[in-house]
Design brief:
Rossmann fold; about 35% helix; 6-stranded parallel sheet
């Protein structure tokens, strides 16, 4: 067996550079590059290997480790999980900064490879700089924090472990049923140790995205449930998007006259004007989807985790005879809410079900209800998009202007936290498939700008636009500097409503007066954050990074700013001041939160009683 002597870092780089993915006959180079920040725990090990010029991996210098993780997640998501990046950091705080990004990737089933530096495997110089010591278990380091948010976790303590560790890493990263964060901790001394690796380990390695077909028995069980139902409703989840099953789902719903609602991850798999597309479903869903979901006697959940926002905390499906059919490549998700599980690829499952039900002549009993509800909702969105705000600019009007008037129809729009995802899941009209990029599994504040850069790296020929609140912008906007550095034009639209207004709304809905969510100065008289509002110039902040800063206070200024941004070649931040409380809400939805049962304020206790009454209507499993 021929061998080649390499350090651990060099072996990792050479291995990653030779990974390929085959999808439906197409061959794709799987690992595009590495994002991260070098510190003492990685720079002379893996960093040395990346600095060599004998590989094809691009290194992206992030400005915050969490931001690096979000760049990689945004890149993989925009590539429909068919290309990925690795992410690296030093030990200690640099590594721990990655944990939130790892959780975001895992919750959303997005493949990202995390390679944090670790303490010395020899333990000779420890405690080293940035080492966390655990007196009761000296095998623990900061990187053990990744275990809760990784789909596979490993630590390389000997050079030869690279081979099994990275083969297992690729096993998970390329499996649609398991995709998420993979973490391999790299002790800083081991990274530089050399070993005689078999040359064949570095040969071009082809991974295959295998579509799991449903068994005939599964198809018959699923078909029997649909045949027994009069008013089934379909949920279009992220699995539809990543399986490229949008056309199959649209044909399935048309053939059998079935309405469908979209999750945040599934939105954009089918165009908004499809006659069976009722837009978002759940807490942040449309009136149309939620009304029909309450009547449905069967929920066909395709590629969705059935999270509490999708199901209104298990409250939405109120027909006492309702059953759930779970079609999902991940068995864990297929069984949610006592569903009949069909563990299979969404595209193949829909095709098999279509063929089966077509032979049996099935058609739902929804009649004109689907068209009627869709027409009402379309009119409501038109109304929302035309709202005249006497104070200047409403949040939903700004979103409507972007969607209906200003942005190219193939622009990729990215968001992930606050009230903006609510408005967009309800009202954003997707005209070009694959352009709606929402992270709402983790709803991670700070995802937006970094992920937009990741999306731009994945789709360099398109405008990539972050639509972000002032809260999320201040949480993490450092990768704007990376966009400037890389010469990648992204547009960041900051809808500034002076605080964490989404949570302020929730607070108010449960009887609690303003406390700690609006951006106000501390009042010396009361000792509370109830003084004058803070005023932030986000455009000037952008200019300090080297980006273009624009400002808007009303609809006309907003239109001018966006049109100017589209003509720019540098990254742009539009500071759009919007009226507080000018987002959408309601639409036949409900969300369960832990409201205080005993309080000084009777309004809070009343809210708790109302919460209990609604809890009684929700399914228990």
């Amino acid at each position: 067996m021929k061998t080649v002597r390499l350090t651990v870092g060099q072996a990792i780089v050479r291995f990653l550079d030779n990974q390929y993915l085959e999808v439906d006959g197409e061959e794709i180079k799987y690992v595009a590059g590495v994002a991260g920040i070098f510190g003492h725990g990685v720079v002379v090990g893996l960093g040395e290997a990346l600095a060599e010029r004998n590989h094809g991996l691009v290194f992206y210098q992030a400005k915050n480790e969490q931001g690096a993780g979000h760049i990689a997640t945004g890149f993989a998501k925009q590539n429909a999980c068919r290309r990925i990046m690795a992410v690296t950091s030093s030990i200690g705080p640099g590594a721990l900064n990655l944990v939130t990004a790892a959780g975001t990737a895992t919750v959303n089933h997005i493949p990202v490879l995390f390679l944090p530096g670790d303490v010395f495997a020899t333990r000779q110089p420890d405690p080293v700089l940035q080492q966390v010591e655990v007196p009761w278990d000296y095998t623990v380091s900061a990187n053990d924090a990744f275990k809760a948010v990784s789909k596979y976790w490993d630590r390389i303590t000997r050079p030869e472990q690279v081979m099994t560790a990275f083969i297992n890493a690729m096993r998970v990263l390329t499996d649609p049923a398991q995709m998420g964060a993979v973490t391999i901790a790299l002790p800083q001394d081991v990274q530089g140790e050399a070993y005689d690796y078999p040359e064949e380990f570095f040969d071009k390695r082809m991974h295959h995205l295998e579509r799991r077909a449903p068994s005939q028995a599964q198809v018959e069980r699923a078909a029997a449930m649909i045949l027994a139902a009069k008013k089934p409703l379909v949920i279009c989840g992220g699995g539809v998007r990543y399986s490229d099953a949008g056309r199959k789902l649209a044909a399935f719903c048309k053939r059998f006259h079935l309405p469908f609602g979209e999750t945040q991850a599934g939105k954009g798999s089918v165009a908004w004007d499809n006659p069976y597309n009722l837009s978002g479903i759940g807490v942040t869903g449309s009136q149309a989807a939620n009304r029909l979901a309450k009547k449905a006697d069967l929920i066909v959940a395709v590629g969705t985790r059935l999270g509490d926002f999708t199901t209104c905390s298990k409250w939405l499906f109120q027909n006492p005879k309702v059953k759930i059919l779970g079609i999902n490549v991940a068995s864990f998700d297929a069984c949610k809410m006592n569903a009949e599980p069909i563990v299979a690829d969404a595209k193949l499952a829909l095709a098999a079900l279509t063929a089966n039900l077509r032979r049996k002549g099935y058609k739902s009993s929804w009649g004109e209800e689907i068209a009627s509800e869709k027409e009402l909702w379309d009119k409501e969105v038109d109304r929302l998009y035309s709202i005249e705000d006497p104070a200047g600019l409403s949040q939903i009007r700004a979103i409507g202007e972007l969607n209906d008037v200003l942005l190219p129809k193939n622009a990729v729009v990215v968001s992930g936290s606050g009230s903006i995802p609510s408005d967009m899941q309800r009202a954003w009209r997707v005209r070009t498939l694959g352009t709606y990029h929402m992270e709402y599994g983790f709803s991670c504040m700070g995802y937006e700008i970094a992920a937009t850069l990741g999306a731009k790296l994945a789709a360099p020929d398109r405008e990539c636009v972050a639509i972000v609140g002032d809260g999320a912008y201040t949480m993490l906007h450092s990768e704007l500097l990376t966009a400037v550095q890389e010469g990648k034009k992204i547009i960041v639209v900051v809808l500034d409503n002076s605080g964490f207004q989404c949570i302020d709304n929730l607070q108010h809905s449960q009887g609690i007066a303003n406390f700690g969510n609006e951006w106000k100065r501390r009042d010396p008289a009361t000792g509370q954050l109830s003084g004058p509002s803070l005023s932030v110039d986000f455009a000037k902040n952008a200019e300090s990074w080297g980006a273009v800063g624009l400002r808007a206070r009303n609809v006309d200024e907003f239109r001018r700013s966006v049109r100017k941004a589209l003509k720019e070649t540098r990254p742009v931040v539009i500071d759009a001041k919007v009226s507080p409380k000018s987002m959408t809400s309601g639409y036949d939805s409900w969300w369960r939160v832990g409201t205080a049962e005993v309080a000084e304020d009777s309004a809070i206790e009343q809210a708790a009683r109302e919460m209990k009454a609604e809890v009684a209507k929700a399914r228990k499993y």
